[in-house]
Amino acid sequence: MVSFLPLLLSLLPLLSSLQISDVTPTSYSLLFTVYVDYAQYQGLADIKFDLHHTEQQIVLHGRDFNIHRIMLYQERAEIKTQYNMTDGFLSLTREDGEGFEAASYFVRIQYSNSIHKKLTGIYLSEYLDDDENVHQIVGTHFEPTEARSAYPCFDLPHLKAPFTITIDHQSKYHVLSNTLIKDSRQITPTLTRTSFLPTPPMSTYLVAFVLSDYGYISKSSSSGVLCRAFFIPGREDEVVAALDIMTRSIDFYEDYITAVFPLPKLDIVPLPAFGIGAMENWGLITIREEFYYTDNETRFDHQLFMKAIITHEVAHMWFGDSVSLSSWNDLWLKEGMAQMLMFVALEHMSEKHPDPSVTISDIQGTMLAFNFFPAIKADSSPSTHALSMDLNSTGEATSAFDAVSYAKGASLMNMLRYSLGERSLRHGLSDYIHKYKHKSATLLDFLSTMDTAGKIYGGISVSEFLNKWISQAGYPVVTKEGVT
Ligand SMILES: [Zn+2]
């Protein structure tokens, strides 16, 4: 995502551990019945998972919602359980006092919740039309650890599974999610059931949906990815530039890392109330309104900002979404990568389609303003930290979205780009994306892949080169003493 720290700090959740049972989720089927006008939803979560060790409890993540019923099955045999939901954990224990053996399980959880206006989880926002009529929108924002407030899950980035999402909604609203619609049909006089195609294996925080009365324009990328830009009715002309840059970004990255776009579609949708700049939900980018709509009257720097944000989020479709973090400890890896690549994309696109209003030096100047200067400032502060950290709570995970992770991370990636050279960088990134597609990767996985690319072309040991930059806070200061 593109972050804005002061806004994020105001959203810090309570501290709790990030740990749960040793499980592998194998599929999620989520049904949300969303009553936008009543600010309520009901949920039905079917989760299949493998438990790897005998345990007294099965521990998922869950918070804030009201549970109506839980049914747990092992090999089609129901196991009677009791549950406890505290501090972000949803723990199941057997009624007979026995432990859970290592096996495959299926859990069905019925629950409900209200839809609030807190800017995280499933939340409500609204806009006014020209006649001052209020139009309501329900959107989602789960990164890093808010998925657990919307649905029960194993809410860690490396615990990926395919998601099948179905949304029952008042028929007057249009609904979007991560994938294309499989089926949409009226199920009551006022409710429509919209089912979406299954996702590839995906992290919990990337699940997203938006209900609105927006319109959209669309075009296809060169490889046939359906790209749609949504807008408040009447503002169609103001999203043409955003759709253009999103589509061309897909073309650029597919060529740059020789990897096809991992989904058949990509939507971008503005949310009137949004706590950050933009979010890379897989296949469904959400963006702050004021960074999205542009026209010929829009200031040059604002237009460039919009383009940079969108190229950042499109980079995440591969870096972070297709290849996920193994833990939030290395958040900087995906954010630094996207924050570096967005300018690489803008440079290359600018060379291919020269635009007198945006020169390469404009882009490079913006890169310094985005990445280098904030990195130096943040990294010289007493509160700076090493890029890779040992995070132990949801609050710590949220506060990791700071200038060190983004700007220093990007500066480090930029240093890597110029040290390796473009050919080695592209080779390494392509290998990384192909090797860990639909999986998660550790920092060591990334470094060893880049090591291989560095040795092939330039003889550089990337891990040796980057190690201290990653593990130590601050930056080297060289002083020169001499006689004047
Ligand atoms: Zn990002």
Number of domains: 2
CATH architecture of the largest domain: Sandwich
Average pLDDT confidence is 92
Q: Hetero groups bound?
A: zinc ion
Order of adjacent strands in the largest pleated sheet: 5-4-8-2-1-11-14-13
Largest sheet: 8 strands, mixed
Summary keywords:
Immunoglobulin-like, binds zinc ion, 11 helices, globular, 2 domains, 29% strand, eight-stranded mixed beta sheet, 484 residues, five-stranded mixed beta sheet, Neutral Protease, domain 2, alpha+beta, single chain
Gist of the model:
The protein has helices at residues 5-9, 147-150, 240-256, 300-316, 331-352, 360-379, 394-399, 403-420, 422-435, 443-457, 462-471; strands spanning 23-35, 40-51, 58-61, 66-74, 77-79, 81-86, 89-94, 103-114, 121-128, 134-141, 163-170, 174-177, 181-186, 191-196, 209-212, 215-220, 226-231, 265-271, 278-279, 284-288, 324-325, 440-441. With 484 residues, the protein is of the alpha+beta class.
Give a structural overview.
The protein has 484 residues and is α+β, with helices and mostly antiparallel strands. It folds into two domains: 5-12 and 23-316, tricorn interacting facor f3 domain (Immunoglobulin-like, Sandwich), CATH 2.60.40; 324-471, Neutral Protease, domain 2, CATH 1.10.390. The chain is 31% helix and 29% strand. It has eleven helices and 22 strands. The chain has helices spanning 5-9, 147-150, 240-256, 300-316, 331-352, 360-379, 394-399, 403-420, 422-435, 443-457, 462-471, and strands spanning 23-35, 40-51, 58-61, 66-74, 77-79, 81-86, 89-94, 103-114, 121-128, 134-141, 163-170, 174-177, 181-186, 191-196, 209-212, 215-220, 226-231, 265-271, 278-279, 284-288, 324-325, 440-441. The protein has an eight-stranded mixed beta sheet with strand order 5-4-8-2-1-11-14-13, with no helix packed on it. It has a five-stranded mixed beta sheet with strand order 16-17-18-20-19, with helices on one face. Strands 3-7-6 form a three-stranded antiparallel beta sheet, with no helix packed on it. Helix 3 crosses helix 4. The model is unreliable at 4-17 (pLDDT under 50). The structure holds zinc ion (ZN). Zinc ion binds next to helix 4 and helix 5.
